[in-house]
Amino acid sequence: MSEANIPEAPAECPPAPSDEQDETVEYVEPPLEPACMDLSDYKPKIDHFEQLHALGQEKMVVGAPNFRQVTDFPVFGCAQPTEEGFIKVLEMVPKGIDEKPVKTIWFNMRQEPVVYINGQPFAPRHPDRMHDNLEVDGTVEEMENLQCHFANIIRGRAADDPEQMLKISKDSAFTENPMNRENLEENVKAKSVKSLKEVYKAIKENGFPNFDYIRVPVVEESAPLNVCFDILVNTLKHEPAATHCAFSCQAGRGRTTLGMVVASLVKEIQISSELRRMGEIGLLPESTVEKIIKSKFEFPLPEAQFDDDPFIKGEFDVIKELVEKLPGAKEGKSKVDRVIDICGPDPKGTGLQNLRECIIETKWKYDVAPEDRQVAFKQMILNFMERYFYLICFATYAKEHGPGGFEISFVQWMDEHKELQTMIDEGKDRLEWTRQVDPEKLNTLKDLINAPNYKENMPTLIRTIYEFAFITYSDLPRGPIKNNSMRKLAAKTLMEILPGDIAQTVQKKLEEQSVSPEFLTLVGMISYYGEGQEEKA
């Protein structure tokens, strides 16, 4: 999708013939434009799965998992709703009064097409990549057109089966790493098939005339294109701050939270700017204006256990470089950090994911993951870092140009700051991807293991390795991730210091027994090394 291409009205699915049409005139359904990609072989996978809702049963809205509202903002979010879930959410959102109805704009934060089978949302997945959301290289209009094509493909499959049965897929449960997910298949009778656009139209025509909808195409767990920020801004800057905004993606997690953060930033700027204008023209004392702004947007948030951790605060090398070199970025980071917190989980917010803290939290998971699982975690970390970087850039842009009505686009602003693209491309990977014990401390361990009486040294060796591992991971909070990280580093360190003959024997036994090099397993093998040879002698 081109950064310069901010799409206008997307394509409509072909309408069904109206009862009011002249029956003597044969209705001819207008053809769709050619699809931007062929989805003929793609499988429909249901969006919902067990344990999708993660905000507690007391907050569960049937058909709209993970529904929540940003405190003091008309900004809402949830997972992709069912047809019934849309109605339940809209009934919960204030509508205003007849004389002054309040508009609700629903932002679909997904690239991938969505179709509804029997009222449940599904998305196409490649047969060989059932755990990866589809990435579409096209404009919003082309994505809407593709969605209509996929709905027709599903209708065709159902029509071709004598009993209108469809094979669908679903995840057995959610796991953060796609490589850990299990795909299940089953057959269902297709009683109804609709595109998401048809669901939207039915909502608008059946009791919610002030409902509108916009697609903001973001790839799952990735930084949005600059044009996505502009789609949000261009939609909201002409709306009053009271306009309700609802956001959804598959699980209502990363992409939904991203939209909620941007909308909250825009609305805060709208409200603050209007209040300050009232102060400038004398409608309110300026001291009162500042008190209102401070009480609404700057009140203290609850403290969390690890607030002082530099990485929890987002103080990564590339972020520190951005704050240092981009004028206004320090204030932009401070502003977006607060909004990220109130859009994130308890105790500061009402949501699912903190878009800043998730960087280091995923890095902790990367540290303890097996090597074959680290690939996916590393890509997520890089994506999260890039997303956070651009959120700070957007907040800096918004503080500069928001009070004037966003007179230039974010795309234009980024074009004027091309060095920022280079900065994040070259800097997002500047993380410590592997941890190891200090080389000087390794020498102490090598002296213990190379001594003739090394078996007598094992208690001291074990204690010393654990002490070194604890020091190495002193920045991690207590819990299973820290414990697993220490055990993994302890095992790696022990393997590194083994004399060649012992290392060769241990490696052979690991392969014969098909076991992983866990620390206690290694200790056992080392402790028994040589005893078999002594008995034979």
Explain what this protein looks like in three dimensions.
By secondary structure, the protein is of the alpha/beta class. It has 18 helices and 13 strands. The strands form four sheets. The chain has a five-stranded mixed β-sheet with strand order 2-3-13-6-12, sandwiched between helices. A four-stranded antiparallel β-sheet has the order 1-8-7-11. Strand 2 and strand 3 (about 75-80) form a beta hairpin. Helix 4 packs across helix 5. The protein is globular, with a radius of gyration of 28 Å. It starts with about 40 loop residues before the first strand and ends with a helix. Mean pLDDT is about 85; it is low at about 1-10, about 15-30 and about 535.
Helices and strands in order:
Layout: E1 43-46, E2 68-69, E3 75-79, H1 83-92, E4 96-97, E5 100-101, E6 104-110, E7 115-117, E8 120-125, H2 140-160, E9 165-171, E10 183-189, E11 193-195, H3 196-205, E12 211-218, H4 226-236, E13 244-249, H5 254-280, H6 286-297, H7 317-325, H8 329-343, H9 357-368, H10 371-401, H11 410-415, H12 419-427, H13 439-450, H14 458-472, H15 480-497, H16 500-513, H17 519-527, H18 531-536
Parallel strand pairs: 3-13, 6-12, 6-13
Antiparallel strand pairs: 1-8, 2-3, 4-5, 7-8, 7-11, 9-10
Helix pairs in contact: 4-5, 5-6, 5-8, 5-10, 7-12, 8-10, 9-10, 9-15, 13-14, 14-15
